[in-house]
Amino acid sequence: MSTHILDKLNFYRFERENQFFDRKSARIKPLDILRYLVAFANAEGGQLVIGIEDDGTVTGFNCEKAHGIDEYRNIFLTELKETPINPKFDIVTVKNNRNQEDKILIISVDVSSDRVIKSYDGKVYLRQNESALDKLYDAYMANDTINLLHEDFDYMIEDLREQGQIKDLPYVQQEKDDLVNIVGNVVGNVDVIERENKNGEAFKVANFSVVSKDDKGNKVYHNCSAYGEKSDIPKDFKQGDFVKLFGQLRTSIDDNGKEHSNVRILSSKLLKAKEQMKGQDKSQEIAKLKSEIEEREKDLFYADSWEQAGQIRADIEKMKAKLNTLTGSEKGKENDKKSILGAIKEYQAEDKQKPKESKEKPKETER
Questions:
Q1: Where is this region: Disordered (predicted)?
Q2: Tens digit of each residue's pLDDT (9 = 90 or more) over 4-46
Q3: Which residue from 47, 123, 173, 317 puts its CA 20 to 30 A from 39's CA?
Q4: What residues make up the domain containing 13?
């Protein structure tokens, strides 16, 4: 056996199984390999080696209960008619664990950049390792994304609907064939990578996550992937951007067989950049503060005691200080002080007038 073949064999035996690579015994049913290869096609491509056990033992095709190589090669033609894939097959001659000449089959699958591949059971699989999900969660926590989800989410949705920018509610709307509409905020940074198809042509993949709200107001996180030209808009998304997405929901399998969800993006739109949302937040907060100040100034005239009036004045001072911070207006600060002082003086004048009237009444009685 040549050094080159031996090196390749050692790679196939000892390489850690991940989202790009897996190995299976030739005893696995040909139908059962489809979910792995469909998952490769729907993610970033990969290789499946048949004839090597999970522990790296080379058992080949000359072992008991092994299926034939042609069974694995033909299963694609008979079972993936709706969304076919075009795998590449390589047969490598090796020595098995019984020191006999044998073969292993390497099946290589390119990423499907123009469509979503369904398995024979109608399900859509995406291969993804669990550590990637952990990293996503860590990134979410590190970036304090909890505060990114817009506080006035319902208001923004209604506002955008009135402008004709969105028409679909709720924020994740399930449609036929696992198609979904999502409206939410981008979590963390968008990861853009370059891949090559089987013809050597480069294309981009944009991976990112979005947080939205369900019908009960709970936060829901979505892992999203946009391939080829579908990544043109998402690749420029920034953390906190408010976006609308349309895509196909896919089931993913990690190395432990656990299922996760991923959305393959078919169309996307930036509704409001994070900077725009900050500006809108500020305007809304200023308007809200002004309204609250007006209400508290009215309360000042109806205070039952000096103690209550003092508390109201303190509240007004705090709100005015916050308003000044938001507007950054020195002139506003002076006007605010005059407004408060004017209100206090009016209250004091009114209050002083009351005792005088009460004292004058007894004098009239004496007369």
A1: 326-367
A2: 666 788 889 988 887 788 999 999 999 988 888 887 877 678 8
A3: 173
A4: 3-109
Contact residues for 286 (Cβ-Cβ < 8 A; gap 6+): 323, 326, 327
Which is nearest to 303 in space by CA: 314, 287, 292? 314
Per-residue tokens: 57: 């033992």
Nearest alpha carbon to residue 346 among 303, 317, 311: 303
- Could you give the C-alpha distances from 175 to 170, 216, 230, 262, in angstroms and in order? 12, 19, 20, 15
Which H or E run includes 70? helix 69-79
**Residues facing residue 49 across a β-bridge:** 23, 106
CA distance 94 to 102: 5
Q: Give the model's pLDDT for residue 175.
A: 41
Mean pLDDT comparison of 16-30, 113-127, 242-256, 349-363, highest-scoring range: 16-30
- One domain, residues 305 and 254: no
Residue 163 confidence (pLDDT) above 70: no
pLDDT above 90: percentage of residues in the chain: 16
33 in any annotated domain: yes
265 plus 300 within the same structural domain: no
Pair 258, 284 in one domain: no
Find where tokens 């089959």 sit.
105
Query: How would you class 164 by CB atoms within 10 Å of its CB: exposed for 0-12, middle for 13-18, buried for 19 or more?
Result: exposed
CA distances (Å), 189 to each of 108, 130, 136, 138, 185, in order?
30, 19, 10, 12, 12
Count: domains in the chain: 3
- Pair (267, 286) in one structural domain: no
CA distance 234 to 238: 9
Same domain, 349 and 251: no
- Asked if residue 59 lies in contact with residue 96, where contact means CB atoms within 8 angstroms, the answer is yes
209 and 230 fall within a common domain: yes
- Mean pLDDT to the nearest integer, 79-97: 85
- Whether residue 143 lies inside any domain: the answer is yes
Question: DSSP readout, 285-308?
Answer: HHHHHHHHHHHHHHHHHT-SSHHH
